[in-house]
Design a protein that fits this description.
Number of domains: 1
CATH topology: Cytidine Deaminase, domain 2
Radius of gyration: 15 Å
CATH architecture: 3-Layer(aba) Sandwich
Bound molecules: zinc ion
Helix content: 25-40%
CATH superfamily: Cytidine Deaminase, domain 2
Number of helices: 5
Oligomer: single chain
Strand content: 25-35%
Length: 169
């Protein structure tokens, strides 16, 4: 379960619309309750999509292996330096990286095989579907024991509307 405010969701959807037709990406900083595996989002950390850097550095083994060319329209990569900076920022504030968000321009909010291949088991993966430049859907995913994505509940942190966030868009 991922708890977040409507303002956080809005910030992520705005980011996704701004970078269209390319994928946006960023980090979710917050708290993880180990006993319940409940995650609480405190801050949205926008990053640049560093996919082209990855291709230049020839570390995009997934695209190389499949023989296909990908671009920022259908791939994202977070620069390790951005990860490090966010970790450092979070350490001073008792915040952890609890997940990653990215957008799917003109594709559903469903993880791709590449998303699954690079996913970490303790993170939430929030995906925003952007259709013709407008964020139209979103869904959060986390890995199960067999490294398969399962959708997870998105719950509002706003006291006035504690219900599931799914009806917001
Ligand atoms: Zn994706």
């Amino acid at each position: 379960m991922l708890q977040m405010s409507a303002a956080h969701l809005q910030q992520i959807c705005d980011h996704a619309q701004r970078t269209y037709p390319e994928e946006c990406c960023g980090l979710l900083l917050g708290h993880l309750e180990p006993a319940t595996e409940r995650k609480k989002l405190v801050e949205v950390w926008e990053t640049l999509n560093a996919w082209e850097v990855a291709e230049k550095e020839a570390i995009a083994s997934f695209s190389a292996a499949s023989g296909q060319r990908y671009s920022k329209a259908d791939r994202y990569r977070i620069d390790p330096r951005d990860l490090l900076e966010a970790q450092r920022y979070g350490r001073d504030r008792q915040l952890n990286i609890i997940g990653i968000y990215h957008s799917h321009p003109d594709h559903p909010a469903v993880p791709s095989e590449c998303d699954r291949a690079i996913a970490w088991s303790s993170y939430s993966y929030l995906i925003v579907a952007v259709d013709q430049g407008r964020a139209i859907d979103y869904c959060s995913w986390s890995l199960d024991d067999r490294h398969q994505f399962q959708s997870e509940a998105l719950v509002s942190l706003d006291p006035a509307s504690p219900q599931n966030l799914k009806s917001k868009i």
